[in-house]
Write a structure and sequence with these properties.
This protein is an alpha+beta fold. The protein contains 4 helices and 5 strands.
Length: about 170
């Protein structure tokens, strides 16, 4: 399996390299579990590995193998909450493998190809469709923002950003 170049940052640490090395076996295990026919990974990957899949009945889907970090821990929960309103539908997931099986959407015009005002209109239309009351297991936006600030400050100082589940408490 060819790993997209966008995931090259994952080669920095031994645990990250282990995740990369496990991807072929993970994708094969998921293909067996859900009886999928898999295509090659999508080339634009930066945080997870995603590949086109076909279900036994011919339905198009996407298999997404998440990088095991805190930021992706509740993606399946979010997709369930949205239930296809403004986001793809979650068809199934395997929490132990950090694997999501989602419906496949056919992208339209990339936002970066639109004039700024038109792109803003698309986002402004989408956000109300995504809004849902939040609670457990989702962290508060203030906690997430504090983590972003800490990471940006560390990067501005030329250091490594805080990582892991405690990144929200670091430096903010």
């Amino acid at each position: 399996m060819e790993i997209p170049e966008g995931l090259s940052w994952v080669r920095a640490e031994p645990a990250e390299r282990e995740w990369l090395a496990a991807l072929p076996a993970l994708s094969e295990a998921c293909a067996r579990r859900w009886s999928l026919r898999l295509g090659p990974p999508f080339p634009y990957a930066f945080a997870s590995l995603a590949m086109p899949a076909e279900l036994p009945d011919g339905t198009s889907a996407v298999l997404k193998l998440q990088y095991p970090d805190a930021e992706s821990a509740h993606e399946a929960d979010a997709l369930v909450a949205w239930d296809g309103h403004g986001a793809v539908r979650l068809l199934d997931h395997d929490p132990q493998r950090r694997a999501l099986l989602v419906e496949r959407c056919q992208p339209g015009t990339p936002l970066h190809d639109l004039p700024p005002d038109a792109a803003l209109d698309v986002v402004a239309d989408l956000l109300p469709r995504l809004w849902r009351p939040a609670g457990a297991p989702f962290p508060l936006l203030a906690e997430e923002a504090a983590g972003w600030v800490a990471r940006l400050r560390a990067l501005a100082r030329g250091g490594a950003p805080p990582a892991g589940p405690d990144h929200r408490r670091a430096g903010a």
